[in-house]
Design a protein that fits this description.
264 residues; 2 domains; 8 helices
């Protein structure tokens, strides 16, 4: 199969290579629209049709596309624009074919049935990304207020030297970590219970960063996005003093499709 899968850390271009085609994703041919100057390296995005499918592509000079920030953003923006017009199956950054013939012969044609099935499965559905974080000062104050032992340990270690209070400091750190973990799990479930009922499917980050309560992607019917927006606004207001949120979407369903360009 003549497709290059460029890792995000690789770079460099080969000016002597024939013009290749960068592939953003796959959509229905009847909703595919050109995007002048919107693609990687500022190239225009055009559709390569095959039966009722279309690959969203732009020209690149090499099968190796370095993952520069501007082009990573362009990749996401192309998919977002296409999503306005219809269902899109996204591919990860860096998928390049030699030309339109190899795109059809090595991907669109042999994977035709799979791609049609996926487009039908995700018809009218979008991804919404939600990340929630504790406000550090607020959650620590909450922990101290709720746990008398932690409050006493905090007071005992505040003025004394590190050496003389070392065991107390160890206990304090362990108790605070345990309380934060308990609150994280509890509040994560509260958020998931509120939002999951509006979604078709959910993918939850299994390794959240420090003070992150929730990192999740929700697959939502387009007609329910407004309801999801309302639920997010309610949560943001209710939790304003102790959490802040990052809410993105609608997005192409990256977290649910798992589409690759490798041969099957």
């Amino acid at each position: 199969m003549r497709v290059a899968l460029q890792s995000p850390t690789a770079g460099g271009t080969d000016a002597s290579a024939a013009t290749a085609l960068y592939l953003y994703g796959v959509t229905w041919a009847d909703v595919a629209r050109p995007q002048p100057g919107a693609g990687v390296h500022g190239e225009s995005v055009e559709a390569v049709p095959y039966r009722e499918l279309a690959g969203l592509t732009s020209a690149v000079e090499s099968t190796k596309v370095p993952a520069k920030r501007r082009d990573l953003l362009r990749h996401a923006e192309v998919l977002g624009t296409a999503l306005v017009h219809g269902t899109v199956l996204p591919l990860r950054f860096g998928v390049v074919f030699e030309n339109s013939t190899t795109l059809v012969e090595d991907f669109l044609s042999p994977r035709y049935a799979e791609l049609v099935q996926l487009l039908r499965k995700f018809e009218g559905r979008v991804e919404l990304s939600v990340k929630a974080y504790f406000r550090e000062e607020a959650i620590l104050a909450e922990v101290v207020h709720a746990n008398p032992r932690i409050a006493r340990l905090r007071e005992a270690t505040r003025a004394a030297s590190d050496t003389s209070t070392y065991p107390l400091r160890v206990e304090l750190g362990e108790r605070v970590a345990a309380e934060l973990q308990e609150r994280t799990l509890r509040d994560r479930q509260v958020l998931l219970d509120r939002l999951s009922r509006l979604a078709v499917d959910v993918q939850v980050d299994q390794e959240p960063i420090e003070h992150q309560v929730l990192g999740a992607s929700f697959l939502v019917e387009r007609e329910r996005v407004a309801l999801f927006d309302d639920a997010m606004n309610e949560l943001a207001q209710e939790q304003a003093e102790r959490m802040h949120f990052k809410y993105l979407g609608p997005l192409a369903p990256h977290s649910f499709v798992g589409l690759t360009a490798e041969a099957r």
